[in-house]
Amino acid sequence: MEFTIKTGSPAKLATGAIIVGRHADGKSVDSAYAALDAACGGKLERIASRGDLDERAGSLLVIPDLEGCAAERVVVVSLGKSADFGDKAWRDAVSAAAKWLANGPARSAAVSLAAVVPPGRDAAWAMLHGARLLADATYRYEATRSKNGDKPRGAASVALLTPGKATAALRTAADRGAAIAAGMALTKELGNLPANICTPTYLAETAQGLGREYKFKVDVLERKDMEKLGMNALLAVARGSHQPPKLIVMHYKGGKTKDKPVVLVGKGITFDTGGISLKPAAEMDEMKFDMCGAASVLGTFKAIAAMQLPINVVGIIPTTENMPGGGATKPGDVVTSMSGQTIEILNTDAEGRLVLCDALTYAERFEPAAVIDIATLTGAVIIALGKVPSGLMANDDALADELLACGQRAGDRAWRLPIWDDYQEQLKSNFADMGNIGGRAAGSITAACFLARFTKAYKWAHLDIAGTAWVSGDAKGATGRPVPLLTEFLIGRAQG
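User: That's the sequence. What structure does it adopt?
Assistant: Structure tokens below.
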């Protein structure tokens, strides 16, 4: 989807559809709506106010061939009641318009995003997040479908309308929104690909392709390299698989040489059977999504490289399959991690923390400003928080607060859970420094407490995205989260 920014009379725009907003109670409309209503002698408001437009934010009313308007269709989107208008209502409205545009008959469109914004937001915020929502709605998975010759559908070009001057800041915001959507599309595509295609090698090749495209360095460590480093926790997970494990390290250097990097660590289990602690068969197909942490790091790198953010970022992706087999790690085995700490593997299905702990130790060499790991780590986080926010745990309050605020701005929210030392008792082992599970109680928290033992050298946050990285049911597929949160965080860090 290509974006332009336009000012001027919306009534004169000859386009397939023009989308404008109206509060359900009629107390507030955007300036483009008012201009169209004036051009058609008040007919637009008469139609919209007679009850055809539902009060719910995101409801649509399509009016073809409105007299006085050059557009083929005027689409009025409800902003909900003016008293309840906020970020969610605005996003619901833009998301509904985006879905209609992505699947509708109009091949070109104009959208009024910035005329009515939630309290505390400005036109640049609306341009960035509006462009992201519009572009994201166009994603479709096609990789393993037979080609059926469908005609192109949806809007290929969209004019973003602004009531004021089309400034460079607004252009930058729109471009950033499109870049974030492109990063989300990559994250979704990697998550949606079947595990017989999206292997650890495939992830490594994807990272190398990004490096070539955007001119940043990518290192891929092989099994022998990890053996030399003493990454025995990561390698323990890989023992049952015929696919070679990889440790992917991406170096984006957009900032000053002296600036410490932000390090993103993404869990890359390309398929998780549970290993010897085998999972139930039902819905095991969804375990191809267990690499969505890795996919989100790759998507974030695509976005920040396209935006040319002036910041240094390192991406670390430990990736392998977790399979049963004659060589697989067994419950009760003890391994020595790269940090030197020993781990009794009580459950081989608690494998994500094993690959992450060695990657988190590896991150120390970069003397990071902050480290954020992203992982589909625990089913327990879904029980605790549902599918709405990602779980957030951190060893630094300021970093946690920064991420929470970024998630709120991006509409990709997280919720903080504690990792008090009290929970560390649950990880006691009679035969090693720690066990890799802490029992049923507080499963997401004890998983983070395990990781915390490997992050004492830097400021660290952990995002458990098991509830937000994909959806099940008829709409099954990867969501692209938390790319919006991560890019919002990095944009903020780049701006100082």
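The chain has 14 helices and 20 strands.
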